[in-house]
Automatic annotation (TrEMBL):
<dbReference type="GO" id="GO:0005975">
    <property type="term" value="P:carbohydrate metabolic process"/>
</dbReference>
<dbReference type="InterPro" id="IPR029019">
    <property type="entry name" value="HEX_eukaryotic_N"/>
</dbReference>
<dbReference type="GO" id="GO:0004563">
    <property type="term" value="F:beta-N-acetylhexosaminidase activity"/>
</dbReference>
<dbReference type="Pfam" id="PF14845">
    <property type="entry name" value="Glycohydro_20b2"/>
</dbReference>
<feature type="domain" description="Beta-hexosaminidase eukaryotic type N-terminal">
    <location>
        <begin position="30"/>
        <end position="147"/>
    </location>
</feature>
<dbReference type="GO" id="GO:0016020">
    <property type="term" value="C:membrane"/>
</dbReference>
<protein>
    <recommendedName>
        <fullName>Beta-hexosaminidase</fullName>
        <ecNumber>3.2.1.52</ecNumber>
    </recommendedName>
</protein>
<comment type="similarity">
    <text>Belongs to the glycosyl hydrolase 20 family.</text>
</comment>
<dbReference type="InterPro" id="IPR015883">
    <property type="entry name" value="Glyco_hydro_20_cat"/>
</dbReference>
<keyword id="KW-0326">Glycosidase</keyword>
<dbReference type="InterPro" id="IPR025705">
    <property type="entry name" value="Beta_hexosaminidase_sua/sub"/>
</dbReference>
<feature type="domain" description="Glycoside hydrolase family 20 catalytic">
    <location>
        <begin position="167"/>
        <end position="521"/>
    </location>
</feature>
<keyword id="KW-0378">Hydrolase</keyword>
<feature type="active site" description="Proton donor">
    <location>
        <position position="331"/>
    </location>
</feature>
<dbReference type="InterPro" id="IPR017853">
    <property type="entry name" value="GH"/>
</dbReference>
<dbReference type="GO" id="GO:0005886">
    <property type="term" value="C:plasma membrane"/>
</dbReference>
<dbReference type="InterPro" id="IPR029018">
    <property type="entry name" value="Hex-like_dom2"/>
</dbReference>
Amino acid sequence: MREEKTFSFFLLLFFILISQTTATNYPINVWPKPTTFQWPNPKSIFLSSTFTISHPYHRYLTPAVDRYRHLILSEHHRPIITPAINITSSIPLQSLIISVSDVTSPLAHGVNESYSLSTPSDGSASAYITAETVWGAMRGLETFSQLVYGNPTRVAAGVYIHDLPIFTHRGVVLDTSRNFYGVDHLLRLIKAMSMNKLNVFHWHITDSHSFPLVIPSEPKLAGKGAYSNEMMYSPADVQKIVQYGMEHGVRVLPEIDMPAHTGSWAEAYPEIVTCANMFWWPAGSSPALAAEPGTGQLNPLIPKTYEVVKNVIRDTIAMFPDSLFHGGADEINSDCWNTDPSVQKFVASNGTLSQLLEKFINNTLPEILSLNRTVVYWEDVILSGNVKVNPSLLPPQNVIMQTWNNGPNNTKQLVTSGYRVIVSSADYYYLDCGHGSFVGNDSRYDQPPGTDQGNGGSWCGPFKTWETIYNYDITYGLTDEEAQLVIGGEVALWSEQADSTVMDSRIWPRASAMAETLWSGNRDETGMKRYAEATDRLNEWRYRMVSRGIGAEPIQPLWCLKNPGMCNTVHSFTS
């Protein structure tokens, strides 16, 4: 009771002292920027070497508390610019007290991640985090850790934060089929996501290039479709990754892309895959058989297809507890299907390729739904100009659409049709763009000096800078009602030219830019874009991520960090 009265007093005090000063002027900042950050009288207090964190026991919160206590006491972060704030008390802060209203809410889409945090003005009282759920408490712990710095360790004093995300779905797509990523690298990705308050690891596990996931009922798929025995994910690996995600407040969303992007399945079952292992772009005027090298699509006319697919669905869902399952359904190639005699006969009998896709969806969607999952599909399944299904087959209450083409226009089409939408616009959120083409024997690179190089051979070039990502509004052009259907966004790293050696630098800190915009927005209190002041904060945050073992690439020379504002353009554009 005494603790509750003390906390209530601090809440009242901070509300009375609310200042109009924005976090721009604060000597210590948090990334992503909280929705409410009040620090009326910036000072700091030392942290006791016996600092404790009290909390309700929870299977996943307790390991997080242990992890953060160790980080807080051992990190000794040294900001690039030493905060010009005084120590307010000789009494060090002894404890952080965490209160959680609901310790039973599972980590699922839409879970409450809000929290409030207060630090006392001196060490005579405790710091407090209150949250509705353990997942909100984890977000508060990350925020508290960023308020701690220096050696000896100190913490910002007299801070009040109330924080909650704008969007409930904030994620990263990583493709582990084109190039393999070891388990430890995936864990590091999840760790960095948690630091940035991202909550969904969208794992694009399989594709035409390899099938690295061990399916217990279909062991031949990985046995023959993986690059090697060392480049597989066992059920035990998956369990480790999912468990680690839970301890960091990050859901793991599996994607088994089908019926296209399935050439690797042909290593085990060649009879169910069309155009497998063909050269992707035949000589002459023939159209390409795939969007890139690596051909193969499941044949919806073969009964064996569904026997294998349903085994894959069941085993994958058994390994991944998340309520969402991603079924792919993008980039169906007409010419790949048309190489198959059974498809040719079907089309000759007045069948269409869209009917083939509908047959596949009708045979697989009910299976996924029967396992109590909501299905995510790429937008192509209803928006493709060539092969698509009637939206009536995909009820919005059971299906979420993920958009990647045509920017806000496709988002508009999808929400107008009543679908919830995850935004991954290639124009803004594709992290692999701008590195040129990966195909060999490419005459586009054999041009006379002085030739305009355009996008350098990258279909989605140019490179997406952090500012490009930061300034993108994923609900642009939508009504307030339509915007409610946009559940969030994901940046994507497709791995044609990436693997674990470059993973960190390709993703961070550009994914941090999206993380802030989806958490608290990209505008200040006046409605103006805040990318100018975000630059110095992101510089400092990138530096701290590196000190925590994340190989985030620099966004400016170190000189710019030591001279805040000096590297900005003289131009000011309003938006």
